[in-house]
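Coenzyme A biosynthesis bifunctional protein CoaBC, pasting as requested.
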Amino acid sequence: MSSETGREAADTVKPRVVLGVSAGIAAYKACELLRLFTESGHDVRVVPTREALRFVGAPTWAALSGNPVAAEVWDDVHEVPHVRIGQEADLVVVAPATADLLAKAACGLAGDLLTNTLLTARCPVVFAPAMHTEMWEHPATRANVATLRERGSLVIDPAVGRLTGADTGKGRLPDPREIFEVCRAVLAGHPLDLTGRHIVVSAGGTREALDPVRFLGNRSSGLQGYALARAAVARGAKVTLVSANVALDDPAGASVVRVESARDMREAVLGLYGVADAIVMAAAVADFRPSARSDSKIKKTSGEPDPIFLTKNPDILAELGARRRAEAHEGFGPVIVGFAAETHDILANGKAKLERKGCDLLVVNEVGENLAFGTPDNAAVILSSDGTSTEVHRGPKEALAHVVLDLVGARLV
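Structure tokens follow.
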């Protein structure tokens, strides 16, 4: 084989993913996660527990993955699957991960093929728990999760929503597409350098009510803020996402606080100041709001409409910077990251804003038609309070998110 042929063969090697499935009702959702992996070019081996096969049978997993399926160490013993599968994997993801599976993994038990695979894996391991709220909040489960995280596994917090039966609460399996996005970031090699850190991210665009029907708003889609939240989860952080008026699925592993107006966002963000290691203000916060809000819909008349008078909204970023400066003598204060959307004089306006707001980092990007708002890509210059700058060329918003978090992480050491 020529060297060129060898390189071509190497280029076609698919990332090897082990999808572990434990015995929860959410096992059927793992079929969608499997489809996302296979359609994006991954070689997936499904390893269910024996109880999980009561929810989704082996023929389904084999047909969707194109690989054989086994739950016991006694199947195909000559291939030593209990060792080989974990050794050869580039990623192991368990979805859903039940309380029972988390307990077995934390204790190092090896009673079936999946738990053996977890013990032999030397690649990144991601757990996506799903269970009833009481199980997730039980001290035993919390201790098991802490143990797994201390050992370097990524355990994604479950979502809040409808559970089995009529129950609702925290414990729902996150959307499979969101789990997939976290796994993609892990496979890309991003470190778990934010484990134990609490990152607060704001996203979306605030709305300022004019009457019960109309509002003043902006064109922010929330895509960049949501990319930041996903990236922080993938790097091990506890993430609180303060979200204003978006039409996006909740990022897997993030706690979402929904707000509408600038004053709502101020209350939510400042309320998290004392527990945050970093606050990333990616939201487009309205500078102004109507001075008066009509309690009824403003009717169209034959004459000209009355003028709308505006008043200033609170400057959340400046308030964060001022609070941090005031408490600097106490040796505590989160890293503060601002965003500046500019249409002209990008760097000059960005440098002036960085100094005025008192933040550590300012992400400056040009906005306009087909730029930044609502697009999947972005470009920016990240200005630092120490006078340095980092240019990020146009690319996926996830890429910019990880550069921002690289710079945040360097300040948290």
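Note for the archive: The two ends are 48 Å apart (CA to CA).
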